[in-house]
């Protein structure tokens, strides 16, 4: 008789919007018969979540009944928690960025590989419809890219504006660098500008592709609440343009932990959310259906590009 597939017990660390979505998705995955189960949650606050025990961090990391953790805290705490989890032989799913430097990220990915653990960095921007459309456009055209621009607008959230803890803007927004590299390959940082005002900050940086094309990243963050919107525009030599600005609704990578819409009425099924898709990638790695190291090289190389962009900011100030 074949062995019953292992159920992976996962503790969620950090219960903001992202953490609550992760708990919800783990429950849904378990109910659907997938080999996942929420083992508990860790929060600085005392909370009641139906059917889910609250643990402290040491309990989650030291418990033999916990196979892995999901790190849903602010970026400045990722390195420490991920490192401690790996030291305790736990699998890890962590919201981007996995670390605040490419050197630390490379070291942790190497440690995970040596111990046979999964270290999976979430980047749902790679799973969006717009990303798939852009990738298909580039793969099926013989026309050279002339220029590109990705713009991301949003408000402060309590940590993204705290450069001393979370790093400079291109580090905390490293996901958009990954989306560029996943389509166009390796790039290099060539220029950055940053301005901070009483209303917020803007940062722009140029990435040069291997064909010499320039892709501009523009980040805008405001103290006041504004809609979070991401737009992509790419122009090609044959005159064709890939532009998401006219998409309805505007194409945007959901904010960290944004909830998917409520389930529709009877007879209809809710479309699988991006975070659930990411969770399934994590499970496939846990079950050996997908390479455990998949995505790690892109993660480290994008952090190297982010470090290059941020170093140009530092040099200009």
Strand and helix layout:
Elements: E1 8-13, H1 17-31, E2 36-42, E3 54-55, H2 57-62, E4 68-71, H3 78-87, E5 91-95, H4 102-114, E6 119-122, H5 129-140, E7 145-155, H6 163-166, H7 169-172, H8 174-184, E8 187-197, E9 200-209, E10 214-222, E11 229-236, E12 241-243, H9 274-286, H10 296-316
Parallel strand pairs: 1-2, 1-4, 2-3, 4-5, 5-6, 7-10
Antiparallel strand pairs: 7-11, 8-9, 9-10, 11-12
Q: Major beta sheet, specifics?
A: 6 strands, parallel
Structurally, how many domains make up the residues? 2
Taken from the alpha-carbon principal axes, the silhouette is globular
The helix count comes to: 10
Question: Please, what is the oligomeric state?
Answer: single chain
Order of helices and strands: EHEEHEHEHEHEHHHEEEEEHH
Widest sheet: strand ordering: 3-2-1-4-5-6
- Low-pLDDT sequence parts: 249-255, 257-268
Percent strand equals 25-35%
Chain-averaged pLDDT: 91
CATH superfamily (homologous) name of the largest domain: Dihydrodipicolinate Reductase, domain 2
The CATH class of the largest domain: Alpha Beta
CATH topology of the largest domain: Dihydrodipicolinate Reductase, domain 2
Count of beta strands: 12
Taking the alpha carbons of the first and last residues, their distance comes to 67 Å
Question: Could you describe the 3D structure shown?
Answer:
There is one protein chain. The protein is α/β, with parallel strands linked by helices and 317 residues long. The protein has two domains: 8-123 and 274-280, NAD(P)-binding Rossmann-like Domain (Rossmann fold, 3-Layer(aba) Sandwich); 125-269 and 301-316, 2-Layer Sandwich (Dihydrodipicolinate Reductase, domain 2). Helices cover 34% and strands 25% of the residues. The chain has helices at 17-31, 57-62, 78-87, 102-114, 129-140, 163-166, 169-172, 174-184, 274-286, 296-316; strands at residues 8-13, 36-42, 54-55, 68-71, 91-95, 119-122, 145-155, 187-197, 200-209, 214-222, 229-236, 241-243. The chain has a six-stranded parallel beta sheet with strand order 3-2-1-4-5-6, with helices on both faces. Strands 8-9-10-7-11-12 form a six-stranded mixed beta sheet. Strand 1, helix 1 (17-31) and strand 2 form a beta-alpha-beta unit. The chain is globular, with a radius of gyration of 20 Å.
